[in-house]
């Protein structure tokens, strides 16, 4: 088992039991459990959560997102989000990952306050709704006032490497009051640069690899979802990819 050195935290987002086990074996300190990572993640099934909790010993945070797309929710969608937060808290999720925006791109303070109450004593992460907000520094301050512990962000770019300038500013502005968790394309090829240029101590990755389906019979011309995706490609966390990032962070930590 890998050990974190000098508080470099590595979180892995996973959407299966197999990926959760691989992430822990590779040295992840914490999991973000989702459903449907291929579309950015949605709320996982409660039975998936319970199965993961039985298989791993590291903390499991749960993403609460009712659908693909924006973070401006109807009343019905928000009611579902609130109930899911309560359900996962009651089932001892280690943390809750949420985000609700207003139509104008600002944080929905009223609804976020309701969800913070629903989360109770569970630490809350504000997810990448942050990356499509109007003003990241205003949102950072609003999140701090709400009691949010962590902000997951790519620096409002498609990848954290592209967003590293803003990420460095956010780390400085947060000043340790909120943990800036860097996500979006984090891997062994860039995590050292991201750590050194941003000053961040927390990183989020998927470490995905594409596995071939066990199906030997393959019906052609039938798509169950996105037509650009093969029905016979399975996405799973690769223990080796996680371990490569863990090793780099451990070396950085050892070097001070």
Automatic annotation (TrEMBL):
Keyword Cytoplasm: yes
UniProt key word Cytoplasm: yes
Pfam families: CutC
Subcellular location: Cytoplasm
Gene3D superfamilies in the record: Copper homeostasis (CutC) domain
GO cellular component assignments: cytoplasm
Coiled coil stretches, renumbered: none
Keywords: Cytoplasm
GO-annotated molecular function: copper ion binding
Protein family per UniProt: Belongs to the CutC family.
HAMAP family noted in UniProt: CutC
Name this protein carries in UniProt: PF03932 family protein CutC
Organism: Caproiciproducens galactitolivorans
């Amino acid at each position: 088992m890998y050990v974190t050195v000098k508080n470099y935290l590595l979180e892995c987002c996973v959407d299966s039991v197999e990926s959760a086990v691989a992430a822990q074996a590779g040295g992840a300190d914490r999991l973000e459990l989702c459903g449907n990572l291929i579309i950015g993640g949605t709320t996982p099934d409660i039975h998936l959560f319970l199965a993961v909790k039985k298989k791993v010993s590291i903390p499991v945070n749960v993403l609460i997102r009712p659908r693909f797309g924006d973070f401006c929710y109807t009343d019905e969608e928000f009611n579902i989000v609130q109930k899911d937060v309560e359900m996962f808290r009651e089932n001892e999720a280690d943390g809750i990952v949420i985000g609700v925006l207003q139509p104008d791109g600002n944080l929905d303070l009223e609804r976020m306050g309701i969800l913070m109450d629903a989360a109770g004593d569970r630490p809350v992460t504000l997810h990448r709704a942050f990356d499509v907000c109007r003003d990241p520094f205003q949102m950072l301050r609003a999140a701090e006032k709400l009691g949010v512990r962590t902000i997951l962000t790519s620096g409002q770019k498609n990848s954290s490497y592209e967003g590293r300038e803003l990420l460095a500013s956010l780390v400085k502005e947060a000043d340790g009051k909120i943990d800036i968790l860097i996500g979006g394309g984090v891997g062994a090829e860039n995590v050292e640069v991201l750590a050194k240029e941003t000053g961040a101590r927390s990183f989020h990755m998927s470490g995905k690899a594409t596995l071939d389906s066990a199906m030997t019979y393959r019906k052609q011309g039938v798509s169950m979802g996105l037509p650009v995706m093969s029905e016979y490609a399975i996405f799973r966390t690769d223990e080796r990819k996680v371990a490569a990032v863990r090793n780099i962070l451990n070396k950085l930590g050892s070097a001070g």
